[in-house]
Design a protein that fits this description.
A five-stranded mixed β-sheet has the order 3-2-4-5-6, with helices on both faces. A two-stranded parallel sheet has the order 1-7. The chain is α/β, with parallel strands linked by helices. Helices cover 29% and strands 15% of the residues. The mean pLDDT is 88. Helix 3 packs parallel to helix 4. It starts with a strand and ends with a helix. It has two domains: 140 residues, Cytidine Deaminase, domain 2; 30 residues, no CATH class. The structure holds zinc ion. Its cofactor is Zn(2+). It comes from Anopheles farauti. Keywords: Hydrolase, Metal-binding, Nucleotide biosynthesis, Zinc. Belongs to the cytidine and deoxycytidylate deaminase family.
């Protein structure tokens, strides 16, 4: 049976924490998949999310052409008589982009959450950047040489890899379910000018009473 995380907060008894939250692993894998939605690749959309030992996200990326190489001008084809007209010579994989996008000094001892098992080229960069663990979702290229080579290198270098089994079949973000109007129940922050005016009024009233 399909289970999903509700997109909006469910009612909990007053004073008790919510129990229907997503766990850390779901959170980071979902971030990888959200990043993949940015990919312009018509055949494969991959996202990657790098998390440090303190469970903080330090890099996110998705597959795409390098900066300055237009999505409209470079080829997205998977096959052509001319190799220069295929995407393979140009595209940067999500793993590499996530590492290069890091907002920390390095990604040493980090974990990478990625939609698809890394290829051999990404595996080299993952190992060299000292990422310690890879959590992946799909291993659809398991029999291909680039995946076999990647696993051989991960095994030799001691990089742990684990296939992710999602506890929920869906994580839904439905903006239409959010009751924006109820936000009006939050007391509005008084404007500073009004606060000053009210304080002055109280001071004058106090003086007049005295
Ligand atoms: Zn790759």
């Amino acid at each position: 049976m399909a289970t999903s995380v509700p997109s909006t907060q469910q009612q909990q008894p007053a004073g008790q924490k919510r129990k229907d939250t997503i766990d850390w692993t779901e959170y980071f894998m979902a971030m990888a998949f959200l990043a993949a939605k940015r990919s312009k690749d018509p055949s494969t959309q991959v996202g990657a999310c790098i998390v440090n030992e303190e469970k903080r996200v330090v890099g996110i990326g998705y597959n795409g052409f390098p900066t300055g190489c237009s999505d409209d001008e470079f080829p997205w084809s998977k096959s052509s008589i001319n190799p220069l007209e295929t995407k393979y010579l140009y595209v940067c994989h999500a793993e590499v982009n996530a590492i290069l996008n890091k907002n920390s000094t390095d990604v040493k001892n980090c974990t990478m959450y990625v939609a698809l098992f890394p290829c051999n080229e990404c595996a080299k960069i993952i190992i060299q950047s000292s990422i310690r663990e890879v959590v992946y979702m799909s291993d659809k290229h398991a029999l291909k040489e680039h995946t076999v080579a990647a696993k051989r290198m991960f095994d030799a270098a001691g990089v742990k890899y684990t296939q992710y089994k999602p506890p929920h079949s869906q994580i839904v973000i439905d903006f239409t379910e959010i009751d924006w109007d109820s936000l009006n129940q939050v007391p509005a922050t008084p404007k500073k000018d009004n606060m000053n005016a009210e304080a002055e009024l109280r001071r004058v009233e106090k003086l007049s009473i005295e």
